[in-house]
From TrEMBL:
Keywords: Membrane, Transmembrane, Transmembrane helix
Organism (species): Clostridium lapidicellarium
UniProt protein name: YbbR-like domain-containing protein
Transmembrane segments: 10-28
Classification via PANTHER family: CDAA REGULATORY PROTEIN CDAR
Domain of life: Bacteria
Length: 415
């Protein structure tokens, strides 16, 4: 009996819902009463060029909007969408000033079957600041790597300067205009165009800034890589032939690149002449390389180490190898991000021929420890951990600057 009563109650409720829906359809489609509704519509600002003439600029690029109160038959009012309207604010009709400006909104288009109740009271507020301009250098940022055996040479720009304009704060933050070029798998010269992006000291995009020119042509020469020996040169009479055989360069070979007609005639890179008579003891020393015109050193800063070996040197019969490693960040708090002043380190290692031949970037641990770091910029030592049997000959750089910032979570205000 209770089960039957429950089914009857459910049936009654369903009938009530159906009756209410039928009544709503009747009122909406037959009676179709007059009603009002609020709708948010975007506003287009026209004649912005007058701001530059007055040496002003808008703060922020967000499109303004206003709330319209519309009235009409229910079927018409509830079918209207924001894009059915066209609202303008004309800056050429008013005198602009630095700070907050109230600009009236004009309705240029609206549906014929509805009316706007608050048509005579539509305004938007825009913030204006003094227009600032300055010239900044154009910097090419290369992403991706050319195909194996090739190297990207110095880029050639159509223009090396760009003019930026905007608010005093945003213009002051810009340090250069970046042209980003992707070199992935390139094996020949790349000619392309790139949009210029205003960036700050740390490579962050600065918003609200105009760049002129907006696009620049970039040519990135791509040359083959060639491995050549390092020839240690001495000043006349500074060292005997037998002693010269005990002095080696670390690394003994380096990679070079350049146009084919240039590097084809280069079979070795000389050091600057060294006068060993002016050196006390037999400590390792650093010397500069003499790089021919048109030749580019690959993963080398332009110097090598001179190593003074004895006849009983434990590394005699061994080898050296130069590697370019990515620096990782370890133990960083999950609430922070870290940016390094240099993302790579160049090292030279020595060891037996077998150990050198088996080494690669993945077998070496290279990192900075950020476990105790807080927000701000701080210096940290670069730790290089080598496999057994290898010795670290040189490392550049020894330390890097680490910029630590708190993460900005999605939905969090940026101020």
């Amino acid at each position: 009996m209770e089960e039957k009563n429950g089914k009857n109650q459910i049936l009654i409720k369903v009938c009530c819902v159906i009756a209410a829906f039928i009544l709503w359809l009747y009122i909406f489609n037959v009676e179709n009463p007059m009603t009002e509704r609020k709708i948010v519509v975007p506003v287009t600002i026209v004649n912005k060029n007058v701001l530059a003439q007055s040496k002003l600029v808008q703060i922020g690029n967000e499109q303004p909007n206003v709330s319209l109160i519309i009235k009409g038959n229910a079927s018409d009012v509830y079918s209207v969408k924001p894009n059915d309207f066209k609202l303008n604010s004309d800056l050429s009709s008013y005198v602009m000033k630095k700070g907050e400006n109230n600009i009236p909104v004009t309705v240029k288009k609206s549906p014929n079957n509805i009316s706007i109740v608050n048509n005579q009271n539509l305004w938007i507020k825009i913030q204006l600041d003094e227009l600032r301009k300055k010239i900044v250098p154009v910097k090419v940022i290369l992403t991706g790597k050319p195909r194996g055996g090739y190297y990207a040479l110095h880029p050639v720009l159509e223009t090396e300067k760009a003019e930026i304009s905007g608010t005093q704060e945003s213009v002051g933050a810009v340090k250069y205009a970046a042209a980003v070029c992707d070199l992935k798998y390139a094996q020949s010269n790349m000619n392309t165009t790139a949009s210029l992006q205003p960036q700050d000291t740390f490579g962050n995009l600065v918003k609200g800034v105009d760049v002129n020119p907006a696009i620049v042509k970039v040519t990135v020469p791509v040359g083959k890589i060639k491995t050549v020996p390092v020839n240690v040169k001495f000043q006349n009479g500074s060292i005997g032939t037998s002693e010269a055989g005990l002095i080696t360069a670390v690394p003994q070979k380096i990679d070079i690149s350049g146009s084919d007609d240039v590097i084809s005639g280069v079979n070795g890179i000389d050091t600057e002449p060294v006068d060993l008579s002016k050196i006390s003891g037999r400590e390792n020393m650093q010397v500069r390389l003499v790089v021919p015109r048109g030749v580019v050193l690959v993963n080398n800063s332009g110097t090598v180490q001179l190593k003074f070996n004895s006849n009983t040197d434990e590394t005699s019969g061994g080898s050296q190898k130069q590697l370019n490693l990515n620096i990782n960040v370890k133990n960083l708090n999950n609430n922070y991000t870290a940016k390094l002043s240099s993302g790579t380190v160049s090292i030279v290692v020595s060891g037996t021929d077998s150990a050198i031949n088996n080494i690669n970037e993945n077998s070496i641990s290279c990192f900075v420890d950020a476990g105790s770091m807080k927000e701000g910029v701080q210096s940290a030592n670069v730790v290089v951990s080598l496999p057994e049997g290898l010795k670290l000959v040189s490392q550049n750089p020894q330390s890097v600057n680490v910029e630590v910032n708190k993460k900005t979570w999605e939905g969090q205000n940026g101020y």
